[in-house]
């Protein structure tokens, strides 16, 4: 019997409050309203941004269903939906593309005005589609993928090639695209250049892959955890260093290593101190530094403006600069054409019910990306 138009009862990982484990609960998922899509989730990656909600480093309303890096199949659509239909394989998008706001209309823009980066936790009509034990459960960044079914707005979904393996291309929904695009699209790394990447998690490794694809001749990976060096070298880093190995500031270490010629730096940690280090590490006159890691909310950053006065460029980067609905299907096509290898980023695959185990792998530094299978 078709579930279209009916409330679906399913399992979801609910965060009832900050700093607590996920609770696997039976929830009710309402049918999609006009211009909305209900999706059956097939696979979802565990991203550090989800942990930011747990740790209250990112705004969200509780109880909440997080998760934002996934692949699924359209179960049903609301009135007026034209770009997807039931049965389509899709990637939910935490960064919408309405096509109408200034950012969407500008060729260089991608942060749609309809984005929920401030933790509103509701869809366009101001309500949610989730309830659990009679209580309202909030959405996260337009997606909420740690659930067997979710509802998103049509502007937050991209139809992809049906041949795409869900447990791999889910990474294109956030981590891979963010890092790869930071180098290729936001930083615009040039052939023969020297790059330094601060932070060698899944997104940092994707930055390295982007730098390599762009033709950088020297790619220096930087992380406190030397266990990450081997994987960084496999995906394209030419060398790796730990800031703990020298008493000097990392910017001085890099200057000595490269003859003061670092063209591009990428901060993929999300710490204020590392952002300043990355800025100071690119060339004082023509260097470009890209902030990729999500910064902690409710905190201000202080820096010496002389770092910019001499000519450096400091850029931010959300979702790698990609226009989500336009570019995600193209990236999936590029993956199927073997232009990049997502297998290198996946270290663990777990059943959805073991989500807390997946986060423990993240905290212990054992995983790059853990994929949850539904």
What does it look like?
The protein has 374 residues and is of the alpha/beta class. Among the domains are: 176-320, Rossmann fold (3-Layer(aba) Sandwich), CATH 3.40.50; 341-374, no CATH class. It has eleven helices and 17 strands. It has helices at residues 48-54, 102-105, 166-169, 175-186, 202-213, 229-235, 250-258, 272-281, 306-309, 324-336, 355-363, and strands at 8-14, 23-29, 36-45, 70-77, 89-92, 130-132, 135-137, 149-153, 157-159, 194-198, 218-222, 239-241, 264-267, 288-291, 313-316, 346-351, 369-373. The strands form three sheets. Strands 3, 4, 5, 8, 9, 16 and 17 form a seven-stranded mixed β-sheet that branches. A six-stranded parallel β-sheet has the order 12-11-10-13-14-15, with helices on both faces. Strands 1-2-6-7 form a four-stranded antiparallel β-sheet, with no helix packed on it. Helix 4 runs parallel beside helix 5. The two termini are 21 Å apart. It is an enzyme of class 1 (oxidoreductase).
